[in-house]
Amino acid sequence: MSLGLTLNNARIDYAGHTLFRDISARLEAGSWTALLGRSGCGKSSLLRLLAGLEMSDLHQLDLATDDGQPLTDRVAWMAQQDLLLPWRRVIDNLWLGDDLRRRPRNRKLAHELLAAVGLEGREQAWPDALSGGQRQRVALARTLYQQAPVVMMDEPFSAVDAITRLELHDLASRLLKGRTVLMVTHDPLEALRLADQLLVLRPSSLPGHGAELERLPGLGAARPVPLDDPALPPAQAQLIARLRDSEEAA
Ligand SMILES: Nc1ncnc2c1ncn2[C@@H]1O[C@H](COP(=O)(O)OP(=O)(O)OP(=O)(O)O)[C@@H](O)[C@H]1O
């Protein structure tokens, strides 16, 4: 289910102002990429552009998939807000897409995924009866239910407490193995624990170009990187310094 992506010439303008242009990146099949940068630099816009959701008047992207087929319908989206429909029970939220497209529901997969995210027995609960962390687990199960090879996540774990966030890292890292993931995050620790590569969107040195992407390698091989890995604190300090530099350059 892996699919690599190569993007070139990414550009977005809003109201005559260039947010970024000439942006290129490679997302290796089955790898996890974290997208960081100061607030308002265009991370969510870039994610929407890749997912085919960007609506600005001027936008462009040359996107090549490794199998040469269109990416359409092969991208799952996970947002900061869980976006669960409150009038549908937990399990009904998983197969919302099936119902809208009049496809048969995959009951076995839905039950398996809810069990995998630790919500066995809560299938018939209403979303409002769940904690924020549990709701984000449902959102993760719903993302996985789509069985898309590419997953775009916009600050998916930022609305939960620190411990729940660490638990969700472990869960997401295990369950999303093999998918090509692009995740916007403001959290350097999250980026370093989960990602194989880090992309920092920072002000371009070229006038009129808006932002540019800087690529930084991730840490070691094991994912998620254990919290007590000695490489983590210095890498985190370096990344924070890098992000601060790009903030000051803005
Ligand atoms: N549809 C739109 N129309 C006009 N301007 C927009 C639109 N969407 C985003 N912008 C502007 O583009 C800039 C980048 O927004 P974007 O949400 O992509 O940034 P971001 O890096 O994800 O920010 P944050 O980290 O705060 O979520 C912002 O100045 C925002 O106001």
From TrEMBL:
Recorded hits in Pfam families, A to Z, give: ABC_tran
The keyword Iron belongs to this UniProt entry's keyword annotation:
no
A GO term, aspect molecular function: ATP binding
Checking InterPro entries in the record gives:
AAA+_ATPase, ABC_transporter-like_ATP-bd, ABC_transporter-like_CS, ABC_transporter_ATP-bind, P-loop_NTPase
Give start and end of each ABC transporter domain.
5-228
Keywords attached to this entry: ATP-binding, Nucleotide-binding, Transport
Protein name, per record: ABC transporter ATP-binding protein
